[in-house]
Amino acid sequence: MVVEQESHTKEKRYVESGDRIRKARLYKGLRRDELADAIHCSSGLIASMEQGVRALRYENAVSIASICGVRVEWLFTGAGHMTDKEAVRSIIGQMQNLDVMWTEFLRHVALIAGYTMQEVDRSSASPADVHSPYLRFVKDGDAKSLSMREVNVFISEVEQHSGLALQMLFDRKKGG
Among 117, 116, 113, which residue's Cα sits nearest to residue 148? Predict the structure, then answer.
């Protein structure tokens, strides 16, 4: 029974890696014989690996990944993204989500202090701050425009006036 399960798991892994080999080959627009020539093996070996009959060895995974422009980790294990381009897109999407969450956090901090928050046009920002969005906090006609570096000071001011421990949350956001 255990041997049967191990055999089934092994076959499943071979088939899954074979599917990834085929996807990688097609992503590059290669026929089996072209991929085989590029990695110095027979087209029969490529066919056997794609069909899940033969295991994908790590050395072959490295060669195929290099030729096809896919990530070795994905080809060999199925983990992660197929290409670096997909991985970068995913990271950018995650960063954008964090920026949205951070902006919402700051909006709540401003509300606690009785301010409203607005993003400000960065076209007049100094070269050192061009990558940091400026924020304007407005309360009773008093406006404070802050770079992201100055937000830390603002949070401390809010903390002093409201008695809340916001600095700890800010430090977590910075990773410190």
Answer: 117
